Amino acid sequence: MNLFYVIVIFFPLFFSAQDYTFRWYNMDQGLPQNSIKDITKDKYGFIWLSTDGGILRYDGHNFLLYNNFKTSNLSFGSFLRTKNRDFICFNNNDENCVLISDRTVKMLPNGKISKTYSMGNNVQYKRYYKSSFINNFFPETNCYYVISNSGTYFFNNRYIIYKKENKPEKKILAPFLMKELRNAFEHENIIFLPDQKNRKTIILKNGIVSYDSKPSLYNDPGSRIYWHQGTGQVFVINNGNIYRSKISNGILTLTFLMRYKKIEKELLYCMFYDEESNKLYLGNVLKGLKIINLSNFYTPQKNVPFSGEFVYEALPFTPNSIISKQGFEYYKDKVNKIYSADFNYDRRYLLYDNSLNLLYVEYNKIHRRYRSSHYQAHDSINFPQRNVEGIFKAGNNFVVNMADSKYQYYYLNIFADDQFKKTKSIFRFKANINFVKELNKDSMYVGTTDGIYLVSNSKNKILKHFAKNLPIKEIQQTKDGNFWFTTHNRGFYLLKNDNEIRIPEDKNGYLSSAHHILEDHYGFFWISSNNGLFKVSKKSLLGYAKNKKTKVIWYRYTKEDGLLNNEFNGSANPSGNILENEEFVFPSMEGFVFFKPGEIRVHYPRKNQLFIERAQVGKETIKFTDTLYLKSDYKNAEILLDFPYYHNIENIYIEARLEGSSNSKWEKIKNDRKFILNNAEPGDYKLNIRFLGSEDGQFIYKQIVVKIKPFFYQTIWFKSFMIVLGIMFVVLIIYARTNFLKRMVKTLKHTLNSKDQELEITANKLKNETEYQQKIMESISHDITTPIRFLVSISQRLNSTKDNELQKKYFDEIYHTSEQLFKFTLDLKEYTSLFKEENIFDKIENHIHTLVQSKKLLFDQIALANNTTLYNLCDPHITTRVNHNILSSIVHNLIDNAVKNTQNGKVLIETEQKGEKQIEITISDTGKGMSQDQLEYYSFVFENMEKDNFVFKNYGLGLHMVIQLTKKINAKITFHKNTPKGTIIKIFLKN
Q: Residue 737: which residues within 8 A CB-CB, separation 6 or more?
């Protein structure tokens, strides 16, 4: 061991703890104006503020503005209490007065209330009932007066006059200057007039003057007194210290409230202390409202430049102080420096050895600071080839966690004494060791990043592994012998019979990363976490562990309760201490937090402080008593819960349930203190509100009725009427349907008869058409047989002859015959495709002249070879929607026949509009023409092809196809003899 001696001068560090937090509210937070003129609290618990923009009601979360008065003067002043414990407040120049009663504000008629100033005998009187930090007195005011239950005192800058009802006035003190009224105040109808110049206090009681000649803070020249007759509060401010003044048995007493160094520099209009919530309200001239959360939490800070205030491990040092590894001694209100040391190695372990020397880990060594040198001298202990990770004390054993050089394994070394020379046992673990706690003289729990191990010293053996996969943070034993352990973000557990029982966490899950548990004398655990300090009944935790039914109620302390920071620190040994003076100490990011559990209050609303009397529907505010009436067409209703609660609302577990709705479960009420009602059907509902009323888990309930008025068509009588009407309607439908079915049966019989006839006709038509098709096929067979037989014959001749000229002749005949056969096949194919065409009309109009012109161009050369001329005399304006392809095929065949049968002549194609819906197409030629027999035959085909007795003659396929296609498009075709020769064919189209 190497021993070092360092000479350091012991000195106290400077500083008291901050024991309050504060928050400003101004126009940025929704106030109508930044000048807060006065502050008071009504009998229901609400805070009221007067401003230059109206009157405000504050419930701890929301500001409710009242400014809808029939006056343009919204600049209100000080509050005055009435006999009914309500308040009145005048605006500037006492033009109007409002009454604050039953949690609302209304304007009083002029003349109903006495004003605070008056004129008489050319003297202006002004009532004095509240002191001010700005201006106390106005030069135009000749006389101020103070009203008490024992009489009225007048102060006119010369003397004091006392007047009691029905008795003559009397001078009681002269001379008396008005400025000496500056620090005046009243207690129990006694007027106190501090004389700071002469260090005495003048006392006025029942019109009698007496003196207190003892110097006190009241008459100290450095004191400033704020008095408000409406609230009954008196504050004495001296050198940054604020005191509350009270009187008991006629004796004035001062109670220290807080230290506020800069209060003399604040431009204050008013101040009010709410003892119930332990908050001080300051009304500023320019900055708005400042709410100071006074607290019995104390957080001393060392205030060392360029050094943070975050702290971790510490040990009790004196009955009312702790010492940190860094050498600072912390009291609740100051910090001393014991020794100096620089620490860069983050190993948060600190404990005493058997001689009360300090042991801690730094730079892979165990360091020891000696008590005998006031912890100035220190040495170190190292372990070759081992990295020292942590140090613990388990009973009489000292335990060191060491890692190998590669941090593959961790070794738990158990030493019998504090010299760390000889190990009793060594246990190897794959997981890092975070905590060690003795179970008995032979066994101990080892908390690791992979659960808890139970080890035996005598057997040098790991007996059990449980809570697997849980990263253990700390293991603690409470007074009843139970073991509890916390984890890294995996919850808080009770260890019972080596089985872990997870405790239900708070509603936000902050306790998933709980740090340390301290148990008080009242049966409560205090648990630090990363987000707040929690208080919980140990009885409820054990009850839940036993039956899983006991409700666990957590109470969370935050900055709203005076903590400087919500984040506490853990993962240290130790990370919480109980001092001999019964103070609890937890480390946090802003320093060590000191408190006595008996001085830390819990806050719950009283049963009569919940008021459900307002609802917001759209832009309309509805006021009601016990029943809320809503119209059927409401879209969204916000039921406002008014209750004065100035702490964390999550601690009271406020919930709502709407009985009679589809979802009647308890729902959490958010910080906005609203219950949103939407999509509820018309009807009567019961809205139940509950909140926690005490630490024992008892809820307080309140109920209102919500009635949603139905539309006329949603009422019972209307529904009944509609049911009856529906029944009648069904009966009428059945009756009408029966008659309809009867008529339908009769009609169907008639229709079936008609259809039978039509089907018979259609069947005959189909039969005739089939026969026609069959005859066409016979004609095709006949027409095709001859050329094919000719081809066979000519082929045989070709094969048998050797004459070249004769072969050439045969080849030429084969060519012409094959060409005609090919054309015949094309015509047949075109006929087949067109006959299958489903649509006989196109979607657009087609010009007949254009169609004919395309055919004329096709046949012009052929006609020219026969010395024949084609003429397209069609009207260019006539159009038709008849299927273009079918019509084109018909015209093509007719022109083809005309050209083939005309030599040295002409072919004319003409059109004529016959009425609105018929077009006539005429194709005439001057060729050899059809015989009379052919004309009659083709006319007969068109008229009778569907009849049974139709006889098919073999006159060729072409005109038979034309007739069939003409039938398909519902057209008509006629055949005529041309004069002097030739044929005329007319087609009549239905357009």
A: none
Cβ density class 691-710: b for 16+ within 10 Å, e for less? bbbebeeeebebebebebeb
Helix (H, G, I), strand (E, B) or coil at 272: strand
In the structure encoding, which two tokens stand for residue 734, read together? Answer: 């059945």
Whose CA is closest to 702, among 623, 614, 604, 607? Answer: 607
3-state secondary structure of 490: coil
Q: How many CA atoms lie within 13 A of 704 on its CB side?
A: 21
In contact, 79 and 88? CB cutoff 8 Å: yes
Query: Nearest CA to 237 among 215, 212, 264, 216?
Result: 264
Answer whether 240's CB lies under 8 Å from 247's CB. no
Strand boundaries in 682-727, DSSP class E: 683-692, 699-708
254, 379, 775, 933 from 937: Cα distances, Å: 140, 139, 15, 6
The first and second tokens of residue 733, run together, are 């439908």
Can you point out the beta strands (E) in 790-857?
A: 841-847
Task: Give the helix/strand (H/E) hosting 12.
Answer: strand 11-13
Distance CA 25, CA 784 (A): 110
Whole-number Å distance between alpha carbons of 165 and 168: 8
Enter the tokens of residue 195: 């004389």
For 615, the token pair is: 């609802």
Alpha-carbon distance of 524 to 533, in angstroms, equals 13
DSSP state of 420: -
Backbone φ and ψ for 389, nearest 5 degrees, come out as -105, -30
Q: Are strands 554-557 and 451-456 parallel, antiparallel or unpaired?
A: unpaired
Task: Report whether 924 contacts 902 (CB < 8 A).
Answer: no
**Cα gap 960→890, rounded to integer Å:** 11
Q: Check residue 275 and report its DSSP letter.
A: T
950-989 b/e (C-beta count within 10 Å ≥ 16 → b): eebeebebbbbbbbbbbbbbebebebbebeeebbbbbbeb
Q: Specify burial of residue 473 (Cβ count, 10 A radius: 0-12, 13-18, 19+).
A: buried
Q: How far apart are the first and last CA of the chain?
A: 123
Q: What is the CA radius of gyration of the chain?
A: 56
Here the tokens at position 55 are 């009157």
Per-residue CA distances from 711 to 633, 717, 890 (Å): 8, 12, 72
* Conformation bin of residue 157: beta by default, left when phi > 0, alpha when psi is -120 to 50: left
Cβ neighbours around 112 below 10 Å, total:
8
Question: With 0-12 CB in 10 A as exposed, 13-18 as middle and 19+ as buried, what is 210?
Answer: exposed
63-66, strands of its sheet edge to edge: 36-41, 47-51, 54-58, 63-66
SS3 of 502, please? strand
- pTM, two decimal places: 0.70
Contact criterion met (CB below 8 Å) for 985 and 923: yes
Q: Which residues contact 763 (CB under 8 A, 6 or more apart)?
A: none
Report d(CA 637, CA 658) in Å as an integer. Answer: 13
pLDDT means over runs of 10, the chain (991 residues): 30 45 90 93 96 94 92 92 92 92 93 84 89 78 91 92 90 89 93 94 94 94 94 94 92 92 87 94 94 93 85 96 95 93 80 96 92 94 91 94 92 94 93 95 95 94 94 95 95 92 93 95 96 95 92 93 93 95 96 95 91 91 92 88 92 92 86 88 91 89 91 75 87 88 86 79 66 56 57 75 76 68 61 68 89 84 84 92 85 85 92 88 92 86 68 65 83 91 92 76
